[in-house]
């Protein structure tokens, strides 16, 4: 799961980032309007934490940009500007939640899990496809009620695809979603191929009825056999 923090206050941004990384999210940050705009134009996120008051613009304008671009990111507004008007406008522009500052990190994490679960998991705590079940809160994968042991990136790849069954995903999109925007600096994707190869073998050996199918020249998609 990949999250973008749009927050101009350095200490708060860093605290939130560290907290979410401990929860095994891929976290990217933006400290102003223009940086955030470039990121949402170039990348996709599972959730955006959005401050309204930015040094070079308004977070509400970023919400409008998301709407214009037909992006479907989950958005939680985190702002000290706790006026009813801003809250209503933010929700009308497509924000999924509004958390006034100051807040507890445990509450923020619970809100993130809630909006992701609501939009990607139909409100369910578990994700099921074929005979595979993922419990995101426990980072646990079950195949026909037997636990499947995966390393962190194998798990992240499986979670990414199982939330997008049947969708063809190219290697660049996968890399950015699972490893973050610094993936642009690597020379090749051999390490991704290795993780996918291992994941496919583990699923097959466990008797999973889902398969991460390679589509030559394009990428991969998750199918149910």
UniProtKB/TrEMBL annotation:
<feature type="modified residue" description="4-aspartylphosphate">
    <location>
        <position position="51"/>
    </location>
</feature>
<feature type="domain" description="OmpR/PhoB-type">
    <location>
        <begin position="124"/>
        <end position="224"/>
    </location>
</feature>
<feature type="domain" description="Response regulatory">
    <location>
        <begin position="2"/>
        <end position="116"/>
    </location>
</feature>
<keyword id="KW-0805">Transcription regulation</keyword>
<dbReference type="InterPro" id="IPR011006">
    <property type="entry name" value="CheY-like_superfamily"/>
</dbReference>
<keyword id="KW-0597">Phosphoprotein</keyword>
<feature type="DNA-binding region" description="OmpR/PhoB-type">
    <location>
        <begin position="124"/>
        <end position="224"/>
    </location>
</feature>
<dbReference type="GO" id="GO:0032993">
    <property type="term" value="C:protein-DNA complex"/>
</dbReference>
<dbReference type="GO" id="GO:0005829">
    <property type="term" value="C:cytosol"/>
</dbReference>
<dbReference type="Pfam" id="PF00486">
    <property type="entry name" value="Trans_reg_C"/>
</dbReference>
<dbReference type="InterPro" id="IPR001867">
    <property type="entry name" value="OmpR/PhoB-type_DNA-bd"/>
</dbReference>
<dbReference type="InterPro" id="IPR039420">
    <property type="entry name" value="WalR-like"/>
</dbReference>
<dbReference type="GO" id="GO:0006355">
    <property type="term" value="P:regulation of DNA-templated transcription"/>
</dbReference>
<dbReference type="InterPro" id="IPR001789">
    <property type="entry name" value="Sig_transdc_resp-reg_receiver"/>
</dbReference>
<keyword id="KW-0804">Transcription</keyword>
<dbReference type="GO" id="GO:0000976">
    <property type="term" value="F:transcription cis-regulatory region binding"/>
</dbReference>
<keyword id="KW-0902">Two-component regulatory system</keyword>
<dbReference type="Pfam" id="PF00072">
    <property type="entry name" value="Response_reg"/>
</dbReference>
<dbReference type="InterPro" id="IPR036388">
    <property type="entry name" value="WH-like_DNA-bd_sf"/>
</dbReference>
<dbReference type="GO" id="GO:0000156">
    <property type="term" value="F:phosphorelay response regulator activity"/>
</dbReference>
<protein>
    <submittedName>
        <fullName>DNA-binding response OmpR family regulator</fullName>
    </submittedName>
</protein>
<keyword id="KW-0238">DNA-binding</keyword>
């Amino acid at each position: 799961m990949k999250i973008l923090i749009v927050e101009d206050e350095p200490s708060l941004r860093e605290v939130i980032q560290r907290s979410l990384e401990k929860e095994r999210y891929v976290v990217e940050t933006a400290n102003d309007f223009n940086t955030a705009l470039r990121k949402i134009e170039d990348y996709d996120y599972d959730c955006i934490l959005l401050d309204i008051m930015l040094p070079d613009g308004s977070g509400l304008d970023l919400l409008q940009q998301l709407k214009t671009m037909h992006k479907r990111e989950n958005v939680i507004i985190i702002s000290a500007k706790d006026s009813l008007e801003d809250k209503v406008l933010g929700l009308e522009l497509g924000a999924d939640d509004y958390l006034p500052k100051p807040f507890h990190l445990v509450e923020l994490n619970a809100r993130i899990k809630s909006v992701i679960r609501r939009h990607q998991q139909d409100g369910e705590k578990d994700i099921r496809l074929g005979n595979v079940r993922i419990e995101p809160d426990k980072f646990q994968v079950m195949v026909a009620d037997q636990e499947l042991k995966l390393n962190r990136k194998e798990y992240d790849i499986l979670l990414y695809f199982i939330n997008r069954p049947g969708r063809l995903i190219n290697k660049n999109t996968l890399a950015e979603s699972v490893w973050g925007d610094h993936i642009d600096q690597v020379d090749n994707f051999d390490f991704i191929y290795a993780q996918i190869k291992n994941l496919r073998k583990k699923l097959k050996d466990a008797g999973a009825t889902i398969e991460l199918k390679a589509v030559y020249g394009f990428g991969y998609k998750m199918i149910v056999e």
